[in-house]
Amino acid sequence: MRKKIVAANWKMNLTLAQGEQLVNDIIAAGIKLSEGQEVVIAPPFPYLIKVKQLIRNYPGIYLAAQNCYSEKSGAYTGEVSAEMLQSIGVDFVIIGHSERREYFSETNAQLAKKIDLALANGIKPIFCCGEPLEVRKAETQNAYVAQQLQESLYHLDAAALKNVVIAYEPIWAIGTGLTASAQQAQDMHAFIRSQIAEKFGREAALGITILYGGSAKPSNAKELFSSPDVDGGLIGGASLVAADFTAIVQSF
């Protein structure tokens, strides 16, 4: 049975005190997780060690970094390596978020290197893929996402793929006023799973967790998560409000 995951991506938000309060409020909500359900929290880099301390006694809650660099080590001022993340107990790392692709021009080839380094250090990548508005309008989203998968994941074998989580981001529905329906989310998730099946086999496809990263919130989470190929969410803005985030988690 594949994992069900709700991941909180804080992005570049909150002070340390605010982040600590947010985690404490989430814990205080007493979320009940069933077997196979996980919560992942991805704070900014400076807060990783503190959040790890706060969640260490709560099974089912894991720590993620929002990024890592595509080289093992060296003269890369300001970057953070997968080995560094492993050394402080990071469990997951977000790779290829749409904002990293757009604002920092990250390529599929660079992301493949990040995937390899994360896996080599025992960290599970949350690999993000998804299409912008012009691609959706042209109705070429399947080919666009397939290329992202091919160029960043298809060099792996099925054993390595078991440690990868995929997050589908309909970029055209994030901050644009447009909304992706549960059916549109399900259709793309099913397509992604079909591509994994074609490359890695049916067992790998049935086992991989695919999250929805398109502005999920308490009002639509239950409908989204009830779709057969949607295994949870990568949550942005709603993860900054404890009540909203816990409501989404409880929508499993």
Automatic annotation (TrEMBL):
Its EC number is 5.3.1.1. One of its GO terms (molecular function) is triose-phosphate isomerase activity. It is found in: Cytoplasm. The active site is at 97 (electrophile), 169 (proton acceptor). Substrate binds at residues 9-11, 175, 215, 236-237. Gene3D superfamilies: Aldolase class I. It catalyses: D-glyceraldehyde 3-phosphate = dihydroxyacetone phosphate. One of its GO terms (biological process) is gluconeogenesis. GO terms for cellular component: cytosol. Keywords: Cytoplasm, Gluconeogenesis, Glycolysis, Isomerase. Pfam families: TIM (PF00121). Its main location: cytoplasm. Pathway: Carbohydrate biosynthesis; gluconeogenesis; Carbohydrate degradation; glycolysis; D-glyceraldehyde 3-phosphate from glycerone phosphate: step 1/1. Involved in the gluconeogenesis. Catalyzes stereospecifically the conversion of dihydroxyacetone phosphate (DHAP) to D-glyceraldehyde-3-phosphate (G3P). Homodimer. Belongs to the triosephosphate isomerase family. This is Triosephosphate isomerase. It comes from Chitinophaga niabensis. The gene is tpiA.
